[in-house]
Amino acid sequence: MDDKVGATNEKNIVKSVSKAFAVLQAFGPDSEELVIAEVARSAEIDNATAFRMLNTLVSLGYVDKVEGTKRFRLTLKCLELGFNAIARSNIRDLGRPLLRGLVGEQIEAASIGVLDGPEVVYIERIQAGLQRLAVDVRVGNRVPAYSSALGRAILAHLPLEDERAILEANPPARLTDKTVVDVEHLLEIIAEVRRQGYAVSDQETVSGLRVLAAPITDVDGVPVAALSVAAPAFGQSLEDFIELVREPTREAARQLSSAVRSQGGTASQTRTTPS
User: Fold this and answer.
1) Alpha helices in 103-237, H assignment, sequence order
2) pTM over cut 0.70
3) What is the residue range of 59's domain?
């Protein structure tokens, strides 16, 4: 194929389509209703073009003109695009592209796990490295919830009595010299996870391996799963690791949570074994 052919080649881009999507993206949670000038400014187009774009989108049913005003707003028809994209998908299918996007030179593995009693079951995983640590986690493998970032991210969104019951049902055992096994200390760690929105396991399950995870929640805020990234502990500090992966991981978990909610997924529907 000619190397000039590609999405970045302007000759292959229909600019009017790009402008139409820029108009749609002008609307948001803080800008639900906009006048033409506001749309033009946000989409970086002139008022005349914004006027034509808006009226075209009105005729197609994706934008409405607010009766009695000069304002426009998106219609529910826009949701159909998103619903069509995730229809008949499960959390593994929805999450796989996000995991692939996370794995690279500095993040060597990304996973999705669900809680099954006192353990986390891996239901999806993309791994590019970690062989040097003899880490070979596969879909279906289990890790203790108390020592894993995945487990802590999920536990943090459960009622306190459930957290304690899970931790006390199978008393934590020391897996490495860094594993926290005291239940009260673990509950404090999990409470901090709830406050900060992510969990970290610094070599507590596998020596030499750091993992950061964020929860995937349904429309009621109940955890259906968690998403994690992993990297070797050597070569960077814990603080640098967290700074590097925290926001990409949380953003991926937010996107997957939104997809699950749009699909109508709930915690009770989440599989604990891979399909």
Assistant:
1) 149-155, 160-169, 183-196
2) no
3) 10-75
